[in-house]
Structure formats: structure tokens, C-alpha cells
Amino acid sequence: MSAWIGQGDVVLFQGDSITDAGRVRDNGNDLGRGYALMAAAQFSAKYPEKQVQFLNRGISGNRVVDLQKRWDQDCLNLKPDLVSIYIGINDTWRRYDRNDPTSTESFEAGYRDLLTQTAETGAKIVLIEPFVLPVPEDRKQWREDLDPKITVVRELAREFDARLVCLDGLFAQASTRAESAFWAPDGVHPSPAGHALIAKAWLQAVGAIE
Fold it and tell me: How confident is the model at residue 3 (pLDDT cuts 50, 70, 90)?
């Protein structure tokens, strides 16, 4: 297990507020309080001999276009061996709260640009698909916008030979065991339990746990 992440590798978590999770921006080693911290902590406890360095450069509110603007500084220049990208919910959300939509086509083009640049470095790639739960009720209409973007992430994972973390189905399944708000109080931002779900799925995706 875990051979996919090698000795001394640098693993970079990228994304929006779910990845950011309140990290201290001026501390380059701060991992925030969410799934990135949980996954890194569990991996490091299980495989201390690997001496893997984990970095978090998630920024709250980011969309694909924002990642593109900072990809050189916050990804390529860090020379990661593995890049984990979790983006997409704000590309949907802004349509509904600011009338600032991101078309599926531009989302796909921007995402493909990020992946092309990353693949050229030889880094391994993990893609985490966005999810939304129906709390509050208005989130249900977001499916119309988000579902095609989730499909894009899945197709890009195949195209770029990336590991995929399938969160949308995972959170839907979890919501049969406890109400949706237990996992994500606003349908978007995970609770601690929700972050733990993501961390476990991520560790499974990279072969660190079964």
C-alpha cells in the first residue's frame, strides 16, 4: 500500500474554501483544519518513514479561473510530486448568488489547462469532484449547473490518468445514515465529520488505506 506516494514526496492540496479550511496564509506549512490536515496527519502517522511533505494552497472563494491565475506561484514553483485539486463548487455557486455563471465549456477548458501544465511536470494528479447536498432547499436547483461540471471532472480524470475521489455519491450515501446538514450544514462546506469522510476517501484513492 501507499507506493503511489514515494519517499520524500511533496504533496500539494489545491482548491477553494473546503481545502483552505482556515489555514494561516503566511505560514506555508499550515494545512488548515479540514480534510487536507486529516489526510496528511493520518498518512504521516501510518508511513512516518516516508517523510512526505504536505502543503496546502487552497484559497476560499476560488474558481478554476482563480487557480489558473496563481498556478505558477502556488503549484508549479513548489515542484510537487503529487497535486490534489478540489475545485468547482464556486463555479456553480456564483451563478446563483452573484449572477456570475461559469459555463461548463469554460470550466472544462480552464481545468484542462491546469492539468496540462501539471502533467508536463510529471507530477501525479488526484482530482476531487465537487458535491452539493440539498440544505437549504435552494441547493437542489444547483444540480442543473453542477452535475455537468462533475461529469467534466470525471472525464478529465480519465483523460489525464488521475486518481478520482468521487465525493458526490459518497455524500449522498452518507446522507442516508445521518441528515445532510450533519455532513455539510450549508450543503457545501463539510462539517468535521464531512471533512473526515473526504480525508478517508482521499487516502483510499492514493492507496494509503484500504
Answer: confident
186 flagged as catalytic: yes
Contacts of 8 (CB under 8 A, 6+ apart): 50, 51, 52, 53
The active-site residue out of 72, 100, 138, 186 is: 186
Is 195 marked active-site?
Answer: no
- Write out pLDDT tens, residues 9-50: 999 999 999 999 999 999 999 999 999 999 999 999 999 999
The whole-angstrom separation of Cα 154 and Cα 95 is 22
118, 168, 190, 204 from 197: Cα distances, Å = 26, 12, 9, 11
Cis bond upstream, residue 134 (ω within 30): no
Query: Average pLDDT of 70-84?
Result: 98
Give the residue from 2, 28, 6, 1 showing the smallest Cα distance to 122.
Answer: 6
Catalytic residue among 17, 20, 168, 195: 17
